[in-house]
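Can't paste images in this forum, so I'm doing it all in text. The chain is below; anyone willing to post the predicted structure tokens underneath?
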Amino acid sequence: MVNFICPVCKKTLSREGSSLKCSGGHCFDISRKGTVNLLLSGKASHGDDKRMVAARKAFMDKGYYGPLHKRICEITERYASDGCTLLDCGCGECSYTADISSYLGSHGRYADIIGIDVSKEAINAGASRHADITLAVASVFAVPLADKSCDIVLSLFAPFSGSEYLRLLKKNGVYITAFPLEDHLIELKTAVYEKPYLNTVSPLEVEGFELLESDECRFKAELTSNEDITSLFEMTPYCYKTSREDRAKLDRLDRLDVTASFGIAVYRPVSG
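Text version of the structure:
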């Protein structure tokens, strides 16, 4: 079991009753859901709000992104050893984290799985998905874990924090990421915007890491209700950047086939 470290003094946190405490006298309460808030006051940033979390959970629970979940689970399992420590940075409501935990268990891999997200709403939702995931409200730019404590770091559609991932990963550890490709959800954007745009995809080269493998996962998601179309839209950043008039265009749709188009890449820190 890997313990969190104190976000104030970086000393190890140990459980005492319903709190996590360090030898420096700092104390953090554990919620009734078993989660802990390690985001320092004044360091808060924008995370998913209650509406976005609920939309993502509703959409993911329908299994529309099943092929991507399966691919990520398979790739993660190839790099996971028994007893490894896996950190999901920006875990959201833990739909991927929970599937990975179950998949590894079904393949005889015990893993110490930790999820962090800056959104308290997301962490609370994630706590109900899988009892064996350790969860904390924390930033990917200040992860409350010790140096060289992780075998695998996941960053699935989350902000990139390369220096932290390099700090956290053990020798021969791996960083696994997933990201939208150019035409991801192009049909949804076409339905809403007069001039739909393609996503910008960053180069696969990442400073400090060597690329071990890359893959693409493409499929059609056939949305069969306005509720599901709305959930997909509301779980994306588009929702808060769209006018009321454009948003209303979705109200007339009861079916929409959308392109799901993802890149997946696996990296190892460059030694030296």
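The first helix runs from residue 50 to 61. The domain at 34-269 is CATH 3.40.50.150 (Rossmann fold).
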